[in-house]
Amino acid sequence: MNLKFNFSEKKFIITGATSGIGQKISLALAGAGAELLAIGRRAERLKELKDKFPDKISIAAIDVNNFADLKNAIEDYATLKKVNGTVHAAGVNKFTPLRAFNWNDADSIIKTSAYAGIELIKLASSKKVGEVGSSHVLLASVAGIKGEVGFTAYSAAKSAVIGAMRSMALELAVKDMRVNAITPGWLPTEMTDSIEARYPGKIDTIKLQHPLGIGSVEDVANLVMFLLSDEARWITGSNIVIDGGYSIR
User: Fold this and answer.
1) Residue 227 to residues 29, 177, 202, 233: CA-CA distances in angstroms?
2) Annotated catalytic residue within 77, 154, 199, 246
3) Across all residues in the chain, what is the average pLDDT?
């Protein structure tokens, strides 16, 4: 069954929109009538995305860790109409075993997943930018609730996302704004493909640990669409796991 949503007259901001879950969510929202600002680092990929829905998708080729650029892009986008929500799908992952732990890599991973997500919601929930009743979704990972050998920095970053989400949900409830996190299991994306190419044995092991098998970015996009919609108006501060049973093993 395909979930159907109508986001006409709604306006959203999506980070990590050039690939994987962020790209799929962007296309799904635009297809459901929403306007959106797609943020990513790869300008050519953003242009390709905009070409699919030129009247619905605006783009900003920036690094989410550059908070000045992020602020300018968001405030410019909200000049004519406030936004109804955000999705923080930007993220990076690298193998960070203790024996060769790289603090520069760890810093980049945590900044992109956690700090940039906090900054995004801080900006989008401001009186100048955010509409009352807006919904904000952060992409976490099962790594944040169930550790994986060699992925210490990524696990720490995604745990931080979940914790920050709960505090922000409490703080923004007085504005009738919702904040939730989604925790996917292993999905075939460019990021996971790059890890699979470098550590093939590790990925095969992870895949076998999902009782319902490997899911798809469409599965996650459907859940995001629900949380952004008015149908989820009584859900906030929740971390919703969508992992084919991986985390209950």
Assistant:
1) 12, 12, 32, 8
2) 154
3) 93
